[in-house]
Amino acid sequence: MSIVTVATQPIEGQKPGTSGLRKKTRVFMAPHFVENFVQATLNAIGGATGKTFVLGGDGRYFSDRVAQVILRMCAANGAARVIVGRDTLLSTPAASHLIRLNRTDGGFIMSASHNPGGIDEDFGLKFNTPNGGPAPESVTNAIHAETLSLANYRVLEAQDVDLSRVGETTIGDMVVSVVDPVADYADLMETLFDFDRLRASFAGGFRMRFDAMCAITGPYATEILENRLGAAKGTVVNGTPLPDFGGMHPDPNPTWAHELMDVMFGPDAPDFGAASDGDGDRNMVVGKGIYVSPSDSLAVVAANAHLVPGYANGISGVARSMPTSTAADRVAEALGIPAFETPTGWKFFGNLLDAGRVTLCGEESFGTGSDHVREKDGLWAVLFWLDIIAARGQSVAEILTDHWARFGRNYYSRHDYEALPIDTASAIVDDLRARLGDLPGTVVQGMTVSAADDFAYTDPIDGSVSAQQGLRVVFSDQSRLVIRLSGTGTEGATLRLYLERVVPGPKDLDLDVQQALDPVIRAAEELAGIRARTGRNAPDVIT
Ligand code: VG1
Ligand code: CO
C-alpha cells in the first residue's frame, strides 16, 4: 500500500461553527471537501504521527464513506491507531467517553446533530480534543486557517476496512480497533446512577417512553433501559438508527418530537417520556401532561444531585450558556456554589470542567451534562431524572411544583425564525446592537431596561476572549430577552429570540408560558422588529 500526496486547493467555507463543520451533504460530497478538512485538522493539531484517535458518528447518510476516508488519511499521516464504533456508530457522548477512557489524542465525530440526514439534507464533521470535548475556538480557528492555505493532503491507497465486526485489523501500519459502540458507555452510566433503585422502580410498574427518533440513541437506550434496567420491551420507540432518520427531524423539542408530546399529553400517558437527537447529546424530558423546559431541567438536576450516587458528594459549580434561563443560578446560590455564564456551545464548558470548577452544565437547547464526559449527554440526563424520580418517589409534575415553590419560576421560551435571508437577519441584529448603549433607563412595553449589551466572555481559566456572543436586554424586574444568530444552520440564517421572565412566587407560578412572557415578546418586537422586518407572522419553532 502506498501513501499518495494529492494536490488540492483551499475550499471556501470550511469554518467550524457552534459545533463543528455543518453543510448540506452534497457539499461534503464535492471532490476534496472531506479530505481538505481532515488534513487541515490533522495539520492544526501538529500532525497525526504516533497518535490514537476515536472515530464514529450518528450513522447518517455518507458516514460510511467519510469514515473510510478518515481511516485512510489517518494511516497516511502516521497515526498509530483509530478506535471506531462498529458500523461507524458512536453517540457524541459515547465518543467523548472513549476519547477519555483510552487516553487518546482526540476524535472525529461525523454528525450534524439534530439536523435531518440524507443526500439532500445535512452532514457534519467535528474534531474533539484529548479531554473528550469539542475543539475550543483556538483549535477551530487554527483548523480554519489551515483550510485557507492547504496545498495537498495525504491518503493511503487501500481497500475499505470492514467496520461491521468488532475486532482489530490494520490499514497500512495503523491499527483499526472496531468496538461495540454501547458497552463502555453503558458501564459508565452504571457507575453514576443507582441501577438497583431504577430496576426496582421499573419492576414496580413505572412506565416510560423513550423516543430515539430513528437516530443514534436507539441501541444505547435499548441496552440500558430495557436490557439492564428491565423497562418493558417497547419502552424505546424509533430505536433503530437509519441513515435518513426515517425522514424524521431528530430534534427533541415539542415541535419535532410531537408524537411523544401527543402520547405524554394523552389519556394513556406513561409516567415519564424522553427523546434524544441525531447524535444523542440532547434530551427532552416530559412528565405526564407536563413539559420540562431544558433550563428548568438543569436547575432541578442541580438541586437534586445529592440524591444520585455519582454526585452524592456534592457538586463544585454549575455553568449555563448565556441564553439559558437563570433558574440554575438560584440553585447554585442556595447551595453556596459558583454559577458560570458562558457563550452558546458546549466547547465553552470544557475548561471549567477540566479545572474542576463546575460539575454540571446546561443549555436551553436541550443540552445537559456533567464532568463524566466533555459533551452534553441525552441519555445521562434521562437517567438522572429517572433516579431523582425514584429517590423522591414523586412525579415530574410534583418535582417541578416543589422546585418552583422553593426557588421561584423562570418562565422561558425560545422563538426561532428559520431560513431567513442572511442580510435581513444580520441587519436586525446589527441595528439592535447599534442601539444597545441608549437603551438602559428607557421604558419598553411598560418595563424599564436595566442593562443591555453584546455578550462577551473571558474564559476564567485561559483568559481567551469570545466577543459578539448575543445581544441581551435585561429589565428591572429581571425579565430578559436575548437575540443571536444560529451557528449550526445550513440554509440562510436562523434568528433565535430567547425570552425569560422571573416570578419569585408564591403567586403566579402556574401561568401559561407564552402568556406569562407576553410583555417580553412584545418588547422584543418593539426593539428588534423581527416580525415586521421578516414579514413572518410567527416563529417556525417555539421551545
Ligand atoms: C445550537 C444550540 C446550542 C448547541 C448547538 C449544538 O447552536 O443553540 O446551544 O450547543 O446547537 O448542539 P446554534 O448556534 O445553532 O444556536 V447539537 O446537539 O446541534 O451538537
Ligand atoms: Co446533538
Automatic annotation (TrEMBL):
Residues 14-150, 184-286, 295-407 form the Alpha-D-phosphohexomutase alpha/beta/alpha domain. It comes from the Bacteria. Its cofactor is Mg(2+). GO terms for cellular component: cytosol. InterPro entries: A-D-PHexomutase_a/b/a-I (IPR005844), A-D-PHexomutase_a/b/a-I/II/III (IPR016055), A-D-PHexomutase_a/b/a-II (IPR005845), A-D-PHexomutase_a/b/a-III (IPR005846), A-D-PHexomutase_C_sf (IPR036900), A-D-PHexomutase_CS (IPR016066), Alpha-D-phosphohexomutase_SF (IPR005841), PGM (IPR045244). GO terms for molecular function: magnesium ion binding; phosphoglucomutase activity. It catalyses: alpha-D-glucose 1-phosphate = alpha-D-glucose 6-phosphate. One of its GO terms (biological process) is carbohydrate metabolic process. The keyword Glycosyltransferase does not apply. Its EC number is 5.4.2.2. Keywords: Isomerase, Magnesium, Metal-binding, Phosphoprotein. Belongs to the phosphohexose mutase family. This is phosphoglucomutase (alpha-D-glucose-1,6-bisphosphate-dependent). It comes from Maritimibacter fusiformis. The lineage of its organism: Bacteria, Pseudomonadati, Pseudomonadota, Alphaproteobacteria, Rhodobacterales.
